[in-house]
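Subject: sequence -> structure tokens, single chain

Hey, anyone have a minute? Need the predicted structure for the following. Not urgent.
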Amino acid sequence: MSYVDGFVIAVPDANREQFIAHARHFDAMFLEFGATRVVECWGDDVPDGKLTDFRRAVQAEPGESVVFSWIEWPDQASRDAGMERIMQDPRMPGAGDMPFDGKRMIFGGFAPVVSLPA
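Reply:
Had a minute. Here:
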């Protein structure tokens, strides 16, 4: 069964192109280490909720957009092995130069329970 890592972050609008370059660089590493697909989505229709919402979840400030991303893996074992390799890779110190505040990132691993064909 496949496995998915999900992420929600707030990115300053002024850093959009820097974020895309950052994502292209590091997403290629995920693919290199076993991911089957990586998707980065820039918030386009992210409404305010009555109780909670994506913006509040990542404490997005004025001038920031919400980015919703996921990494698909063949299974959890592949994900665990791939993430371990990524964390040991000498290219990873560059991840510290993120174009967003990593302390406000929400992330987690998920086991799909429903998956329909595209």
